[in-house]
Amino acid sequence: MTTRALIADDEPHLARALQAELAALWPELQVVAVARNGVEAAERIAALQPELAFLDIQMPGLSGLEVAQGIEGTTRVVFVTAYDEYAVQAFEAEAVDYVLKPVTRERLQRAVDRVRRALAVPAADPGAADETRLLAALQRLLPAVPGAAPAGPEPLRWVRAGVG
Questions:
Q1: How many helices (H) and strands (E) does the chain have?
Q2: In this model, does residue 145 exceed pLDDT 70?
Q3: Quick check: 147 pLDDT over 60?
Q4: Residue 160 — φ and ψ, nearest 5°?
Q5: In what order do the strands lie in the sheet with 76-81?
Q6: Which residues neighbour 119 within 8 Å (Cβ) at sequence distance 6 or greater?
Q7: Among 51, 56, 80, which Cα is nearest to 66's?
Q8: Element (H, E) at 31
Q9: 122 vs 13, which has greater pLDDT?
Q10: Alpha helices, DSSP H only, in 2-125?
Q11: What does the pLDDT read at residue 142?
């Protein structure tokens, strides 16, 4: 199965080197775009909806963190950067991995392996997790309601809620 990816780095030679290394380590990966700045990266991610984006942190226009925070889809992010001080923020933005430059083949292989595992699990719909937790909570509470029918084939029809 082909995985589509975007690479965003304001240093063209580093973007080309990353693309070449990824081609060697992951032949099924198709790089659909190489962006030279954060604004271009955000536009291409929105238009192409790749499964994966390799983002530098410091780029003109928008930082890689700003690009990641603005993604409105299921594109997963790997940060490839020379700056280690943004790692916590990157993982708060749900990065799959954080690779420091200069990138070694061994480290990139570990990142590829991690990404493949992450892609094997479907990206969650942001609202789906909330809905699942709410449904589970309601199902736990239903037996505690006096006179409530046991959980069965008939779905819950009404939820009474008060304010204040």
A1: 6, 5
A2: no
A3: no
A4: -90, 130
A5: 29-35, 3-8, 52-55, 76-81, 97-100
A6: 3, 51, 52, 76
A7: 56
A8: strand 29-35
A9: 13
A10: 12-25, 38-48, 64-69, 87-92, 105-120
A11: 62
Structure tokens at 99: 């690779």
Q: Which two tokens stand for residue 102?
A: 């200069």
- pLDDT, position 121: 81
Cα distance between residue 117 and residue 119, in whole Å: 5
**b/e 77-112 (16+ beta carbons within 10 angstroms → b):** bbbbbebeebeebbeebebbbbbebebeeeebeebb
d(CA 48, CA 6) in angstroms, rounded, equals: 9
* pLDDT of 132 over the 70 cut: no
Tokens 């890689």, residue located: 64
Distance CA 80, CA 53 (A): 10
Structure tokens at 54: 């390799």
CA angle 72, 14, 91 (to 5 degrees): 40
Q: Are 106 and 112 in contact (CB under 8 A)?
A: no
